[in-house]
Amino acid sequence: MKYKILVKQHIGAPCAPTVKAGDKVERGMLIAEPTGLGAAIFSPFNGKVADVDENAIYIEAKEADQPKEDKYIPLEGETPADLIKAAGLVGMGGAGFPTAVKCNVDLHGGYILVNAAECEPLLEHNIGYLAEHADKLIEGVKILKKLCNASHGVFAIKAKHEEEVKTLAALCEKEDNISVHLLPDIYPMGEERAVVREVLGKLLEPTDLPSKADAVVINVETVQRVAEAVIDKRPVMTKNVSVAGKLKGGTHTRVFYDVPLGTTVGELIERAGGIDGEYGEIVMGGPFTGKPTTLDAPITKTTGGIIVTKPFEDLKGAKVGLLLCACGGNEARMRDIAEKMNGVVECVQTCKQAADIKGTLKCENPGNCPGQAQKCMNIKKAGCTDILIGNCSDCTNTVMGSAPKLGLNVHHQTDTIFDTVGKERMRYLTTSKSVPQLGEQTEEEAAALENCVYEVTQDVEDGMLHIDIKSGKNIEIELPLFQ
Ligand code: SF4
């Protein structure tokens, strides 16, 4: 097989190849190094370089020649900082920012916030890894705390992952200042500043970095790879990927761990069962921020999901207004979806909370709706019959409060994907925007206690005061008596 390893898999400049056509390579061998901001690239295979061009290094590799997963050329370097840099680590949640640069910071006793929100629907590889290897992630957090001079490590994870939360909480109890913060199940909770806001209660400006709040926000898989780089001296050669959609054997998500970089989308889809008949598009990434891709595209350090969709709904040339969200598809992606739905874009509106920062939209307060009625009216006034939105859970709910009343047919950019996998379309907000933290009362428990009838008795023999709650939530509390 011939594998295409891109020389740019990160934010920054493309790497410079250190190999040429005809060279033999081994698993873990450096094949391209940074020329400025960037991260080194390593061969995931034993094989031979077939070709090198400005975009990629092509490696011929035979399955029979591949070593076991734990065999590779180990990294050289002594300190965690050296090893993280040497490993070619980048933000593996999709951002691709070089981790060595991100972690070259003094947090003055602040926070390492592990982003375990896995906010994009259908992606499951982060929670899946956490369920099996939470201990490795704790090791990664300890390394990062020391490296960045942070005194706290916090796993930010959605409360709905009850088993994984229990596992993490039990492990954290044995550690100094590593804890769990529960997130609500709404989109977007994984945006960096949303994580800072939810955990630390500080709302940063769109131009601020988490370091302004003495925090580093780091994705689960990046923490995994930090631990592997420092403890196992393992370079980044593989990626964890979720694959879902119109596949033979069912539309559910399959998780593949340690997929060699350069594996094609088509090969991974085949491993997941293969495409089931006619399809609409293949998306690389999640339903909100993913982009269309092709079967021959290679898996990179930032690939999180591969989703095969059913064919698109046909809007038969309807006039469509787009409503852009900073945390959804950009204008090009939304136009692409409208075109695939056979709609004609007549009007483009942007959520008023989406600030344009150097050509990229960033939300001023992710997931908290500023109101969308005016935007819907603008789209109606432009003569549209349909509105295609990419909004967060809260704003979608608001759109649903006005657009249908204006006679607009509402479509969400995630509809085709959700329809494919049988997931309810995103329309109304059905879950709470806040969740109790571990040990706190739930809203139901608080309401039950408010309406309780208490019966207080004193048992002289056991010296305890018994408070028996006769109605509401049925619990009994025992308090020691003070004489
Ligand atoms: S408030 Fe607006 S920009 Fe922010 S996440 Fe919601 S729709 Fe997107």
Molecular structure report:
With 483 residues, this protein is α/β, with parallel strands linked by helices. The protein has five domains: 1-67, RNA polymerase II/Efflux pump adaptor protein, barrel-sandwich hybrid domain (OB fold (Dihydrolipoamide Acetyltransferase, E2P), Beta Barrel), CATH 2.40.50.100; 74-236, Rossmann fold (3-Layer(aba) Sandwich); 238-308, Ubiquitin-like (UB roll) (Roll), CATH 3.10.20.600; 319-421, Rossmann fold; 443-480, no CATH class. Helices cover 24% and strands 26% of the residues. It contains twelve helices and 25 strands. The strands form seven sheets. Strands 13-12-16-14-15 form a five-stranded mixed sheet, with helices on both faces. α3 runs parallel beside α4 (162-173). It is globular and about 80 Å long. The site of iron/sulfur cluster has 15 residues, from loops.
State the gist of this model.
This protein is an alpha/beta fold and 483 residues long. The protein has helices spanning 80-86, 99-102, 125-147, 162-173, 192-200, 220-231, 265-271, 331-340, 373-381, 393-402, 415-421, 443-450; strands at residues 2-6, 16-17, 24-25, 30-33, 41-42, 47-52, 56-60, 110-116, 150-158, 178-183, 215-219, 238-245, 254-260, 282-284, 291-293, 305-308, 319-324, 344-350, 354-357, 360-363, 386-389, 409-412, 454-459, 464-469, 476-480. The mean pLDDT is 94.
CATH architecture of the largest domain: 3-Layer(aba) Sandwich
Pairing-aware structural class of the strands and helices?
A: alpha/beta
Largest sheet: 5 strands, mixed
Strand order of the largest sheet: 13-12-16-14-15
Mean pLDDT: 94
CATH domain class of the largest domain: Alpha Beta
Residue share in β-strands: 25-35%
What is the H level of CATH, i.e. the homologous superfamily of the largest domain?
NADH-ubiquinone oxidoreductase 51kDa subunit
Number of strands: 25
| Radius of gyration of CA atoms, rounded to a whole number | 25 Å
Portion in helices: 10-25%
| Shape descriptor | globular
Q: Supply the number of structural domains.
A: 5
Bound molecules: iron/sulfur cluster
The first-to-last residue Cα distance is 81 Å
Which fold does the CATH topology of the largest domain refer to?
Rossmann fold
Number of helices: 12
Detail the poorly predicted runs. Answer: none
